[in-house]
Amino acid sequence: MSENTSLQQQLLDAGVHFGHLRKxxxxxxxxxxxxxxxxxxxxxxxxxxxxxxEAAAAMKQIAKSGKKILFVATKKQAKEIVTDCAQxxxxxxxTDRWLGGMLTNFGTIRKSVKKMQSIEKMLEDSSISIxxxxxxxxxxxxxxxxxxxxxxxNMSRTPSALFIVDISHEHIALSESKRLGxxxxxxxxxxxxxxxxxxxxxxxxxxxxxxxxITNYITAAIIEGLQERENEKDKMDDSExxxxxxxxxxxxxxxxxxxxxxxxxxxxKKASGTRRTTTTAPKK
Length: 284
What we know:
Blueprint: H1 2-14, E1 18-21, E2 33-37, E3 40-43, H2 45-64, E4 69-72, H3 79-88, E5 93-94, H4 106-124, H5 132-149, E6 161-164, H6 171-180, E7 183-188, E8 199-202, H7 208-246
Parallel strand pairs: 4-5, 4-6, 6-7, 7-8
Antiparallel strand pairs: 1-3, 2-3
Helix pairs in contact: 2-7, 3-7, 4-5
């Protein structure tokens, strides 16, 4: 309870509770609104803490299973925060512009990423002779592509989940993820529909401090999931080594035979004396 109280205080200090003007509200956000003050809706921070904990727990499990979570935030005030958090946990991100079909037409997007990577290799390779004008053109093309596709350059397949800062602003990304059945997490302000995402976090999605505290909390949960995954891998490796030691080759006896329990059998005693022979009388 004390943890939730301290978290609520941090959310309050960051201004997470400030919503939009009353005239811009979405009626479906009514369960998440605490009150109205001077024409502005105030978000219930108890609901924010509940949604944040549920989202963090789900993201932790996704990260623990080794799957990817795509961070989406193309708003000016959220770009740097989301880029930094996504890079910390080695997750893909989109912070410049969402290209139509980035999920539903992922094959074509992947080709563009490969083209960008091939241009980058070409510019780095000194053995390839390129004149100054061509090099400048290729460099400009690469920078333009990297601005949009740089965050998903290491994403080889569609992600398992999306974390969206403003679901109204990123409606194309949201609709594409819904079409593919991808789990969605989102910061939902009073002007948005919380039913459009699987895990809604009612919060102010315009203030920098509000975006920072929510995104950092989510990132911390992902880090915990990744650490648990690494610990499980280490335990598995240790158990495999122990099994390998237990299955070490067993020693052979003097006559090359081995007991069922791995112990040497006692060597056979050689028979002493002469072998008895029987003779038959010749037939008359």
